[in-house]
Amino acid sequence: MNLLEKLDAAATARKAMLPEGVGAFGIPVEEVYSATEARIGERRVLLLGTNNYLGLTFAPECIQAAHKALDTEGTGTTGSRMANGSYHGHRALEREFADFYDCCAGIVFTTGYQANLGTISGLVGRGDTVLIDGDSHASIFDGCILSGAEIIRFKHNDMIDMEKRLRRLGDRTETTLIIVEGIYSMLGDQAPLADIVALKNKYKCTLLLDEAHSLGVLGETGQGLSEKTGLQKEIDFITGTFSKSLCSIGGFCVSNHPQLDQLRYISHPYIFTASPSPATIASTRAALQLLRNGGNLRKQLWKNCTQLYSKLEETGYKLGPEPGPVIAAVLDNPKQALQIWQRLLENNIYVNLILPPAAPDGKSLVRCSVNAAHTTEQMAYVGDIFAKLYNEILQT
Ligand code: PMP
Question: Is the C-beta atom of 112 inside 6 A of ligand 1?
């Protein structure tokens, strides 16, 4: 098979998963009306397939800040900070992240994906080891590959398996980076951070926590799982993204190790890419302020999460192990998941369809993401439609 024929074979396999004409992936969104509503085809749909956890995509403070930056600093930086220089906004945002996490240093990256690539590949290299959760996001896995370090996976959230692998490493644990996530993006469950920290200390490893889905969601001020568990000082490096609760695009790493700064000089995903646009940085700075003071938004978010999770659980759906803004119904096979996804759309509800191999353990998921801007009535409507579909599709 030549290179193009290989792509044809992959496309055929992909199409075999979906009936002709069903565009479940990369669905065209024609117009966005608000943090909760958009138009898909001719339908006005309720959005439950975004990561807009605090519902801030149309926050006037962020929009105004972005407009101002556009007017005063232009559309883009046109290059990397190492080569072209560091704008005031980028440096200010790094200080604001460091201050938010009460850390001495912070680095801003162009995407959350690159934050993981850049941090991991800057911290470990050939001869070192990364110990990662089996359900890790692709950006973590790709960062590990880029680094050249040996990659060892432990079973998702399984501390016995994790310790078994640490024990086998012997004195290599000192050059081992453990990587876990605050909230896992597929099933919405949280890492057992206290146990992970205990193992990290026992075996003298370094710990990186990706707060991509937990930033804005967990903890009094929204720092994430580190804050919720009071373990901020035990974590060596925290990464995260601007593309979820902060409603823009970019990523960050913060740390209390001053050595973090050295990553700017060695990390290719930081050096060899253009820095985020001034408007992106400005809206992110405004969103970070809203997030820090977003106690009421978090309260509303959790009310919505609990309402929908309880309704789906009581209906009989198999769900991820705990409520949170990611609520995934685990279906028995791709056909069932596709049917539920399609019927939800016919009822003007847009959620994510996750088919193997994208979901862990070959699962088929219908994944909802709940936000603070959803109303109680909207959550009730979604719950009722899910219940109707359960009876119509899963009970027959
Ligand atoms: N880490 C995790 C856990 C993620 O789920 C994602 C994105 N879904 C990223 C990092 C990458 O973030 P971004 O989309 O901002 O590049």
Answer: yes
Q: Among 250, 269, 292, which residue terminates a domain?
A: 292
Would you say the CB of residue 142 lies under 6 angstroms from ligand 1?
no
Return the pLDDT at 22: 62
CA-based torsion, 191, 194, 195, 201: positive or negative: positive
- Indicate whether 328 and 347 sit together in one domain: yes
Q: Is the CB of 241 under 6 A from ligand 1?
A: yes
Please list, in sequence order, all residues whose beta carbon lies within 8 angstroms of the beta carbon of residue 124, skipping any fewer than 6 positions away. Answer: 130, 144, 147, 149, 175, 177
pLDDT tens-digit profile of 199-244?
999 999 999 999 999 999 999 999 999 999 999 999 999 999 999 9
C-alpha closest to that of 140 among 195, 191, 216, 97: 191
* Nearest-CA residue for atom 1 of ligand 1: 212
**Residue 252 — left, alpha, or beta (φ > 0 → left; ψ -120 to 50 → alpha)?**
beta
The answer, yes or no, to whether any atom of ligand 1 lies below 6 A from the CB of 181, is yes
Pick the atom of ligand 1 nearest to 251's CA: 15
Least confident range from 12-26, 125-139, 189-203, 289-303: namely: 12-26
Range of the domain at 48: 27-54+295-394
191 lies in the same domain as 167:
yes
Indicate which atom in ligand 1 lies nearest the CA of residue 51: 8
Q: Is the CB of 136 under 6 A from ligand 1?
A: no
